[in-house]
Amino acid sequence: MKKRLPEKIVVVSVGRHTRLGDVLERALEDVAFETTEADALASADFRNRRVLFAVSADQSGVNTVLRALTAALIGAPDCLDGCICALIADGEQGGAVQIDALRLLLAANMAGALIPPKSLLESGAGLKRFSDGRGTPFERYCAAARALVERLAGYEPVSADHPRVRLATLLEDGAANDWHKLLARTAADVGGEFADSTEAESTIMLCENATGLPDEATLSLLDGSGRIRFWIASPEDGSELYLLALLERACVRGSYALAPRGVAVFDGLNAVEAIADQAEAVRIRKLSLF
Known about the structure:
Number of strands: 10
Radius of gyration: 19 Å
Strand order of the largest sheet: 2-1-3-4-5
Helix content: 25-40%
Largest sheet: 5 strands, parallel
C-alpha cells in the first residue's frame, strides 16, 4: 500500500477537464484532498492550506475562468495567507496557458501564498515534452503530476532562529553599496543578519527593468535555493513580463521558493532613484525580508 501523504490538499478546479481529470486521479491517489471551484476560492477561508490549482486551458487560449480567478485573488489580498500553492496546467485542447498560469501563481503570492520550487507543471496538446524515456508520454505526465503533488504536500518552509538575508544584484559601485547598507540596517532592525554568503536563508534579488525582459546575466543570479523576494526598479514599462520571467526561472525551473508577498516594484524609478526617494526608502524599510 502506498504511503498516505501527511498534508490535506485543496484542489481548485479551473476549466473543463478531460485528460487532466485522469491525470489528477492518478496523481492524488492515497492523498487526502478536497475540491473547490475557482469562483469559491477568494470568498472562502482557505488560509494555511496546501492549494493545487488544476487548470485546463480554453481551446481559444482566452482562459476566461482562469483570468477571472486571478483577478479575484488580486482583489482579495489576504485570502491565501499561510498557504503553499502549486499549479498543473493542461493544454489538451491546444490553447496557450503558460503566461496566464504564471499570472495566477503571482496573484496567489500577492494574496499571501508561498510559491515553492518546481511549482508549475505544464503540458501541451501532444505531450511532446513527456515523450523521452521509459513508459508512454501519458504515464510520464502522470508521474510528473504525482511528483508535484508530493512536493506540495511535503514542502516545509525554511525557518531560522537568526535569519540571514543576502542581496543578489548586478548593481555596482556606489549604488550597490547604498543598497547593501540599507538592507543591512533593515535586517538588523528585525533581528536578522545581512550576509554575503549564498548560505543565507533568504535572498533579495534587486534588478532594473530597462528592456522589458531580464537578460541572461540577470537570470544567472537565480542559480540558488531558499526563499527569494524580487525588488524591481522599473524605469521602463513592462514590469509584469519582466517579473513573470524571473518567477519562471526561479520557482518553476529553479530551486527558489517565492516568499509570501515577495514582490516590490518601484515604477518609474531606476535603482539609484528608488533608494534616493525618501518615500520609497521608507517603503523599502517596511518590506519583509525573510
